[in-house]
Amino acid sequence: MDERRKPLIAGNWKMNLDLAGATTLAREVLQRTARMRTADICVLPASPLIQAVAKVLEGSAVGFGGQDISPEEEGAFTGDINARMLLSLGCQYVCIGHSERREFHLETDESVRAKTGRALASGLIPIVCVGERLAERDSGATFQRIERQITVGLGGLSSEEMARVVVAYEPVWAIGTGRTATPAQAEEVHEYIRKLLAGMFGEVIASRTRILYGGSVKPGNARELMGQKDVDGALVGGASLSAESFAGIVECTG
Predict the structure, then answer these.
(1) Domain extents in the chain
(2) Exactly one of 98, 100, 161, 187 is catalytic; which is it?
(3) Which of 2, 11, 20, 35 lies 20 to 30 Å (CA to CA) from residue 203?
(4) What is the CATH number of domain 13-238?
(5) Is 170 a catalytic residue?
(6) Which of 103, 151, 154 lies closest to 127 in space, CA to CA?
């Protein structure tokens, strides 16, 4: 990690927990990370649980946000969540373009761009996800896939807008599989993303952009992963459902 970029550890709770479970987990995360100041911390509960989590985290250093956002302001879009709803609950962050949204909800790089623009216009911090499938990695198409996701998904943003974006690299083949990209593999892609950003927005913005790694991050591998020059934190899935494991990952930033 570059000392100029404060790490961010984001816990993606996905479609897990209920009201009681989310409240308990939020309280435990707060307790276990209360003295940790080496990283920014946020959790991303399922949308029906955000309000309860917000009450627990109110006034604390632990931020929270949504797992998705509509590119539309409002209207007849059943099941969607708009920026105003997230903001009214106190959200600071929103995850955009997670691989599961791309796979199961057919989201495209173009829709990621639209959602990112909406998040930025509303004042939310977008965590924009990119990453390749196993077949793409095995065929040598990793960089080609990442390039399109970055150039289309973030294309057209101003430098001022990009300065508020967080990027998360999540190799799809390492999500929930127990497989993790090696630190060298993670660094190789993170470095490539930063070079793409430098070409699009200039060296200064690229050097300040936080690029998280996501893909079976655990306390046992987090320190080595985040010890890489261009890895600025983690987007944590399964391990974020345990306050002990999540806090252990945060601790690795110290």
Answers:
(1) 13-238
(2) 98
(3) 11
(4) 3.20.20.70
(5) yes
(6) 154
